[in-house]
Amino acid sequence: MINTEAVFERFEHPYSYSLVSGLLSAEDLSRLNAELPPWDLFRRLVKEGPEYDKHYRMWLMDLYDEQGRAAGTEKLPAAWAELLDDLLSPQFAAALERGLGVDLAGLGLTLGIYRYIDGDYTTVSVGKSTKVVHFAFYLNDSWIDAEGGHMHLWAAKDAMEPAVSIVPVGGTAAVMSPSEVTWHNIGKITTGTAKDRINIMVEYWKN
After folding, report:
1. Nearest Cα to Cα of residue 117 among 48, 167, 174, 186
2. Mean pLDDT confidence for 83-110
């Protein structure tokens, strides 16, 4: 399903990151969106209040961690099960290594489906320093600028506006290696009840 020959386009402003397009065909995006994973496989995550540095609202279905495939993955619709198989394949890991120029051997891996409903968001943060690869894989079969949910990249946490805003177009991915300067967030979803913003996070971690 995944196009492992997709090109990683590198950028250096406001910091080093890559964009990848053409990871999935329109047909496969349609298959994924025709039957989404059921809501009972997701858990609600909300962190808001003055005691927290980062705030967010989202839903998460865990797919994979150091223990292997998560409970519930056997209930995934067929297209999503196929996508998970591809994400766990040696071919996909090799494509990441080629595209990013990093060695993933020995690193921990986590996968999760993140689902953002109307009004969900995250505030600006740099990401966790123990994370080596942050691969945000967008899966909606259609998404327009007015629906919000952009991946904003910031030159500084207190900047007046983002340096880059990435529309989460299906079949594309935004990739970075978190550091002390990788300020980013997800803008508020503004779709009403029409659709949810859906992506899979592929994350490699230092051991």
Report:
1. 186
2. 97
Q: How far apart are CA 149 and CA 173, in angstroms?
A: 14
Q: pTM (2 decimals)?
A: 0.96
The 183-186 sheet, strands edge to edge: 164-166, 151-154, 183-186
Number of other residues whose CB lies within 10 A of the CB of residue 193: 7
Nearest 5°: phi and psi at 129? -70, -15
Contact 31, 24 (CB under 8 A): no
Q: Count Cβ atoms within 10 A of the Cβ of residue 86 and give its class: 0-12 exposed, 13-18 middle, 19 or more buried.
A: middle
Which CATH architecture group holds 8-205? Sandwich (2.60)
Q: How, if at all, do strands 121-122 and 56-65 pair?
A: antiparallel
Question: Is the pLDDT assigned to residue 207 strictly greater than 90?
Answer: no
